[in-house]
Amino acid sequence: MNNKHSKESVLASLFWKLLERGGSQGIQFIVQIILARLLAPEQFGVIAIVMVFINLAQVFVQSGFSTALIQKKDTDDEDFSSIFYLSLIIALLLYTIIFFTAPSISVFYREPMLSPMLRVLSLILFTGALNSVQNAYVARNLMFKKLFKSSVGAIVISGILGVTAAYMGMGVWALVIQQLSNQISISIIMWFTVNWRPKLVFSFKKVKKLFSFGWKLLASSLLNVLYLEIRTLFIGRIYSSSALGFYNRGEQFPKLIVNNIDGSIQSVMLPTLSAYQDNKIRAKEIMRRSIVTSSFLVFPMMIGMAVVAEPLVVIVLTEKWLPAVPFLQIFCLSYALVPIHTANLQAINAMGRSDIFLKLEMIKKTVGLIILGISLPLGVYAIAIGQLFSGIISTFINAYPNKKLLNYSYKDQLRDIFPSFFIALIMGVVVYVFNYLNLGEGKILLLQLLTGSLIYMGLAKIFKIDSFDYLINTMKQLKKKRSDSNVR
Q1: Tens of pLDDT, residues 126-157
Q2: Which residue among 149, 227, 396, 452 has the highest number of C-beta atoms inside a 10 angstrom radius?
């Protein structure tokens, strides 16, 4: 086995990936809280519309090819450099399109600020071209310690700039400054910390080979982003920017937590699973561990956050954000399913079956759009509930191919996640009762957090949940590894 993908290397990479996610997302969380207190809901709605077009453009710049670089068994400088220059050309073309169509988009949404905001924020497409290749290089070589430095450093810089701009009364432009400076800072820091530089080489042959795998992922990512962002487009046009602001703030907290935990695990799992793509038994073991561990961490957080939503929003965001509470509760349930989604999809990618991945995306998006069409006239809350039902159906669709690819059936997956779900549900019921106590929101929330944590860990110990012992042992191994390194 390649030492790069040994258990010790994977655990060390996972530690740094979790630290990178936790550090950057934690700081980002604080920055977003401060900005939410300083800015109005409709201003967050406007930036959400802008980000739809940026995110769609980023798919063409970043998706597909970076994953192909990770998945390919043997890559060299020619591969990385060719993809970098191709991404840069694509970024230039897309920026030109956005620049000239921005006024029309602004008129369509009846938001005069959209045009200049789009033209300025689209500049991140150029840093995205560089950053996507840098991230692929880091992921392929499990160099997540370097990613930690760049992500945390960039979010600190952008957070300071964004909050300062908000205090100075710059309104929605504070959000533009925060987003733009974050992406620029990441690329600059990684340029000095990651030992990769583009060479003056370009190979159509290399691009064509990577494209044969990457185009399916690119198409899948485009479908996925368009499908997710289409709700933002409709809410912003049919309803109001303030309604969109509440919708997005309700999604922010669960999305932040799940992307932190599950995203860290999956970022390490893709290159690790790819290394075992010829050993299906070992690949299945890694995938099962990914699902079980992610679910054990995510379920209690999502269920817990759903039951403490109201005091949490009042304390953290203030009462002006109370309409976001129902959205927060709905999205907590929706994002609880993410570990199952991503583990199944990463396994399919690691096996080199991007064709299956694309077919799944087309099926899921067709189902989701039908549900969206039904829920759209019923209001913004109905749209969020429809997204939850789409997520439940998608869970079964994503899991289907791995019954054949890795002999990992629905029954096996449900059996693996049920213990964590069961004890998280018990914890949630007990914690919810605390909402009826005649105490202030701060005391209730503190009591709920402490009690929920104790109940969940206690039940995990009583019922001998495998993931609990696994995580404890993993932390001990990491601590010992760091201690041994310090001694040497």
Answers
A1: 888 887 777 777 766 666 666 677 778 888 89
A2: 452
Gap between the Cα atoms of 212 and 321, Å rounded: 46
Distance CA 63, CA 60 (A): 6
Nearest to 147 by CA among 100, 193, 197, 108: 193
Q: Which of 384, 383, 287 has its CA nearest to residue 339? A: 287
Identify which of 246, 196, 204 has the alpha carbon closest to the alpha carbon of residue 40: 246
The yes-or-no verdict on residue 1 having pLDDT over 50 is no
Domain boundaries, the chain: 240-488
Count of Cβ atoms closer than 10 Å to residue 426 Cβ: 14
Write the DSSP string, 282-307: HHHHHHHHHHHHHHHHHHHHHHHHHH
Structural contact between residues 309 and 232, judged by C-beta atoms closer than 8 angstroms? no
Helices 410-433 and 380-399, axial angle in degrees (round to 10): 140
3-state secondary structure of 168: coil
Question: What is the distance, to the nearest Å, from the Cα of residue 17 to the centroid of all Cα atoms in its chain?
Answer: 13
Contact 291, 247 (CB under 8 A): no
Rounded (5°) CA angle 219-223-226: 135
- The DSSP symbol for 377 reads G
End-to-end CA distance of the chain: 25
Looking up tokens 């059996």 gives 415
pLDDT in tens, 326-353: 999 999 999 998 888 888 887 887 777 7
Query: What is the sign of the dihedral through the CA atoms of 107, 221, 365 and 421?
Result: negative
Cβ neighbours of residue 324 closer than 8 Å, sequence gap 6 or more: 246, 247, 249, 250, 313, 317
Minimum mean pLDDT range among 78-87, 240-249, 392-401 = 78-87
Angle CA 100–102–104, to nearest 5: 100
N residues, the chain: 488
Instruction: Give the mean model confidence (pLDDT) for residues 101-106.
Output: 92
Per-residue pLDDT tens for 174-198? 999 998 998 888 888 888 877 778 7
Q: Are 76 and 142 spatial neighbours (Cβ–Cβ below 8 Å)? A: no
Q: C-alpha distances in angstroms, 97 versus 53, 102, 237, 276, 405?
A: 11, 8, 21, 41, 41
Q: What percent of the chain has pLDDT over 70?
A: 83
Q: Hey, what are 368's tokens?
A: 């989701």
Question: What's the pLDDT at 104?
Answer: 93
Backbone angles phi, psi at 195, to 5 degrees: -85, 60
